[in-house]
Amino acid sequence: MADARTQLLDVDSRVAITPQQQAFFRENGFVKLSHVFSAETLRYFGEHITRQVIERNCLQKPMTERTTYERAFLQVTNLWRTDPVVERFVRGERLARAAAELIGVRGVRLYHDQALYKEPGGGITPWHADQYYWPLSTSNTCTAWIPLQATTREMGPLAFAAGSHRFEFGRDLKISDESERALQEALRRQNFAEEDGAFELGDVSFHSGWTFHHTGGNVTDQPRAVMTIIYMEDGIRLTEPKRPEHIADRDAFMPGAKVGQVVATALNPLLWRDRE
Ligand SMILES: O=C(O)CCC(=O)C(=O)O
User: Is-contact 152 201, C-beta < 8 A?
Assistant: First the structure.
């Protein structure tokens, strides 16, 4: 516990996940929940998250000199390791339990957190599926995408291809101009419906590791500040790395984990477990 004030801010109480929301997540590979956090909670933790992004961001190039990936967002990972208040947020049971109930597992561990700040004038986030990057043994994973302000369509809210977690084309594409081009075309041909609406303050979305998603650019003069927490089922195992991104993720987010063994390093705390 970082200080007494954080005790007043609710990151632990249960979000009631309905059977309909669970079914929606299973069917579509994502779900958006409303009123998950109060404005005060988002403001308080958001200030600490933003401070970490400013202190730890290494990307200083002007927008015109950046790659598509670099234009998409400032990316800072594992903020829970460098700020005790952010740690309190990331360890919160509110989102962790919701993630477990949506995935349909009895416990979840942290894979990692990351802040994704799309600057004013920031570019698109190309279509992709996150699990391309993750050498993990099952698809029982999900990301909570937590905007720290109301996020209009002009700011680049996260958009999902509904049901695309079962679509296997494009799973070998990293975030790039190529993933944007190939997936835009493939998803359109398959007639996947796109959920691309704004996020109200307090809304949080959850998406599966294999759900294809993307965003437009931020055409406003406000940063689009977002925190994400990536959950994996307790018991998931490290698989043999198949690509350089797997090696990078293994070393950064589960250092010392062994292929075939349950991922439970010091960087992967158990965040929620059903004790009943
Ligand atoms: O925030 C973004 O622009 C992209 C987010 C994303 O791809 C993710 O959280 O998996």
Answer: no
Q: Give residue ranges with CB within 6 A of ligand 1.
A: 72-73, 116, 118, 125, 130, 143, 145, 158, 213, 215, 226, 228
The owner of tokens 């390093």 is: 265
> Which residues, other chains included, contact 146 with Cβ-Cβ below 8 Å and sequence gap of 6+?
36, 37, 42, 95, 204, 226, 227, 228, 229
pLDDT in tens, 55-72: 999 999 999 999 999 999
What is the distance in A from the centroid of ligand 1 to the CA of 156? 10
Domain containing residue 154 = 27-265
Indicate whether 177 belongs to any domain: yes
65: in domain:
yes
Query: In this structure, are residues 221 and 123 in contact, taking their beta carbons and an 8 Å threshold?
Result: no
Instruction: Report the predicted TM-score, pTM, of the whole model to 2 decimal places.
Output: 0.97
Q: Measured from the CA of 118, which atom of ligand 1 is nearest?
A: 3
Of ligand 1's listed atoms, the one at least distance from the Cα of 145 is 9
Residue 21 falls inside a structural domain:
no
Residue 216 is part of a domain; what is its CATH number? Answer: 2.60.120.620
Q: How far is the CA of 4 from the centre of ligand 1 (A)?
A: 32
- Residue whose entry in the numeric block shows the structure tokens 């090696």: 247
Residue of 170, 151, 176 lying closest to 227 (CA atoms): 151
- Would you call 175 helix, strand, or coil by DSSP? coil
Q: How many domains does the chain have?
A: 1
pLDDT at 25 over 60: yes
